[in-house]
Amino acid sequence: MTEEEIREKELKYMIEDSVDSSVERAFKKYGRGRRGFGLSLSGIVSIVLLIAVLFMGYKWYEMQKASEHVTPIEELDLTLENNGIFGFTVVDFQEPVLEKAVQQRLLIVEEQEAYVGTSVTETGLFNLGVFNKEQMLTIHGTGQYTIDLTQVKARDISLDEENYELTICIPHAKLHNVSYDPEKTEIGDLQRGWLAFGDLKLTAEQQNVFEVGAKQELEAKLSESERFAEADRFAKLETYEMYQAIVRTISPAYKVVIEFQQ
Question: Which of 25, 29, 106, 227 has the greatest number of beta carbons closer than 10 A?
Fold first, then answer.
């Protein structure tokens, strides 16, 4: 038993003992002891009032002790201040959600790696095939997918007060940037015309043309439908975590639901 419980038990005994003593005195004054009979009406009323006062004092003490252990809950306080439990409207959520769009603008939702097979050709004398050299290559790159949060407007935010859900409609993910990584290029077989000799060598201009073409091939690969489907999946996860954190500061009772704009 803790020290606080011992003190509370002692106080309870003191109050009970005080009640017994008070009742005993009242019986002696107005009657013939606790076991006697023939109390007057005023004596009975005095005893009842005395017991009631002592009982109410004890209950008040218990309530005071209980209130000392109540820890204020910040979120609950916010809720109660908003005209009742969970009494929110869509406007309460729109401002912080739209403000986040202004701060964040483009949200990177995923980066995907890709590779494609290609070839580079060095033409020989008079562009005759017998002098040509062709090198097979595997090029690697990365695609960055983003969503534009500034496209989220007030009309894209709706509130289901019955189920405590805030639905936010976001745009689909887009391929924002494609980078070609020449250091990861895999060099394959070199094919030569029967009069071509030596290794393939490109001029600076030919190298630039090759890199532009490589980037275009990577972009085509990264623009396949399954790539966007995966990016959209991550877009939902990223925006849910971001917006749920915002909504939680307003009311922990509401859950965010992410949908895509039509």
Answer: 227
